[in-house]
Fold this sequence. Notes:
Blueprint: H1 18-24, E1 29-34, H2 43-61, E2 66-69, H3 81-88, E3 98-103, H4 108-120, E4 125-129, H5 144-154, E5 159-164, H6 170-178, E6 186-192, H7 198-210, E7 216-221, H8 228-234, H9 242-250, H10 255-268, E8 273-277, H11 284-299
Parallel strand pairs: 1-2, 1-8, 2-3, 3-4, 4-5, 5-6, 6-7, 7-8
Helix pairs in contact: 4-5, 6-7, 10-11
Amino acid sequence: MSDTPGHPAAPPERRSGRFVERLRGDEPTMTVELRPPRSGLTRGGAMDMWIDLSHAIRGLAARDAFLMLTDSAVGEEEEENLQHLTANLANEVDPWRVVPFLTCLHPLDYCLRYVDRARARGVESVTVTGGDRVRGARRCVPHGYQLRQRFRERARDLTLGGWVNLHRPITEQIGFATDPEYEADYYLTQVVSHHDLARAERWLESAHQEGLAIPGSFGVFYYRNGRRSVLERLSRFFPVPVGGVAAAFASGVTAERHCAETIVALRRLGLAHVYLCNLAPHHAATQFDRIMTEVAALEAGAG
């Protein structure tokens, strides 16, 4: 994903939105990223996945989690996330709990209509990113911040999120996030790990030094196993500390404990807000509960 603005200056004005208000607070916020079904599935296959996703969203919302729905993640076209919110979750989940992604990999008129539809359905926050190339799809604008600028002209009450990658040079990424052209009320980070916590530490130091005014949520990946072949395949999509993860699983650490260790390590740095990636929709609530049980044990000193 890409978010590349121009020149640094004063921070943007603050806007409302319950997701952003929670990110501004000290109480830890848990968010779960889920993926809609891939485009092109059979009707029955897509329906089964929508049902699983609906159960996951309802269960996680009942646990006070926010939900992020992706938009053509990892180079695969997906069913529209906003369609699911409208067709399958109306009157069941507060729409402000759902924070959809929107990439630039759509025609501009579609994106502008999307933001109007999101507002009409009660969505309060949308994360806007450049997006990974999907089957030759072209971006309607070169960078996510340019699309956020267009949205701001017509939806000043909607809170907009941007993207930062802590695996890139930190000074570069802080420069983007502090630029007024970034046009974001919050940011999400690429996934980080307790095996490489120095990146998050450097971000925190630089954010303080540069006066970064907007809050953020840090990505934490739920590794389901420690097989090197799987980890190396995942490395095609984002940086994976293959050796550290593989060694942890080999020592008997469970998937839930491993995930919890990253959450607790971030909290100890003062980074209280995280979003979880890679929970399985049909087990998401159960996996979430097990992870949070491990978090509580680690924070109580039982780990």
